[in-house]
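> Could you send the DUF6984 domain-containing protein prediction when you get a chance?

Sure thing. Input:
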Amino acid sequence: MTVRPLNLPELGLLIYLLRGTPQAAQLLSELHTAEVAELNTDSIGSLRFLNHMPNRHLGERIASTQFLDEDSVPVFAALYLDQHGELYELDCWKPNDAPVVRIPAF
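Output:
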């Protein structure tokens, strides 16, 4: 598992998703130091946010959106928190199970 910072397209998508959520101020302030691991090596966009808390698991979905990929197939994106209210996972997928090619500028 490769750990890395967010790239610009991911950061733009996350800022877009977090706008207007009750936790926006706190979560947006943490993005510049966020470390992530890609969940799917043949596609882009699905990420797990890493931190040092043990026994983390999926909590609530706090935001979602959709956009068109380069092949004109819709991409669905959902952002989840863990059970402690920390960023946990960004999930991006296509209904045809094809890999996501590109996250557009948001």
